[in-house]
UniProtKB/TrEMBL annotation:
Family affiliation: Belongs to the thiolase-like superfamily. FabH family.
Domain of life: Bacteria
Pathway: Lipid metabolism
Record-given protein name: Ketoacyl-ACP synthase III
Keywords: Acyltransferase, Fatty acid biosynthesis, Fatty acid metabolism, Lipid biosynthesis, Lipid metabolism, Multifunctional enzyme, Transferase
Example of a GO MF term: 3-oxoacyl-[acyl-carrier-protein] synthase activity
Family matches, as InterPro entries: ACP_syn_III_C, ACP_syn_III_N, FabH, Thiolase-like
Gene3D superfamilies given in the database record: 3.40.47.10
Segments forming domain Beta-ketoacyl-[acyl-carrier-protein] synthase III C-terminal: 239-328
Amino acid sequence: MGVEIVGLGKCLPEKVVTNDDISDLVDTDHTWIIERTGIEQRHIAAGESGTDLACKAAEEALGNIDRDSIGLVLVATVTPDAMVPVTSAQVKMRLGLDHAVAFDINAACSGFMYGIWCAEALMKNGAAPGAGTMNIQRALVIGAERLSRITNWKERSSCILFGDGAGAAVLENNPKRPGILATYLKNYDDQKGVLTCGKEYHQTPFYKDENQPQHLALRGKAVFKFAVNSIEEVTMEALKQAGLELDDIDWFVPHQANGRIMEAAAKRLNQPIEKFQISINKSANVSSASIPMALYDLSKTGKMEKGDKIAVMGFGGGLCAAAAIIEW
């Protein structure tokens, strides 16, 4: 039994923030940003909530699919609108997905990949609670972020990188289609704190917690090295599981973290950059939303054909990385 992607959706906030706009905030310019990241602009939520973005992306992914057939809603995010209720529960309620079980996960920029892995496992091996013995026929997996809320807009090397948005995919059990051929996940210990974001809690009358600024912080060179190495490792392991070689892959869809990282990954894998979907120029790094958004962009080019093999690769804080091989 295969699990395939049958619907994709994407939502970006209306407000566009250009590199020139960023240069009004910190000492930088358009050329400096382009050369180091490949980013021309990013979208920033000025009125939309994370749940708004998630719902709009989900609605497009669902299209005319029967909403009663959705048995699972899974949202990957590091920037939920609230701790309770979780974003997936809000999406379920707003979209009237009455038969779905909903939960959120946080695996940083690999979140969508971890979500796909969870959804596939539940669809193949688990039943939906409250649904008797009925298996989950379809699942909705969303990556949704408002990274602008945890970006340090005074820190030049990081504030240029991030944006807001959401991407969604509908997965379906289909015994006649291969769909997801293999998935490989790996966690690495971040012993040096190369990619972190604190959490600001209220102080209690019993203990004074150490102040943890709720800003994304990264050590660029270390993140770059980790990203390129982990992309190679998880991609090769997923290919091994699928019984395929690199040259069998028609398209690569990596997490859109930095243009230089994708170029370096292409060289490491000895693959032409033309096989890599590059979306970062218009939307920047949107963490867990970047992969479904890039996959959506690739689908809209009309280049993908039925039967194409796609390698989808994520990496992020934790540290964590994941890859999936999908037959379109």
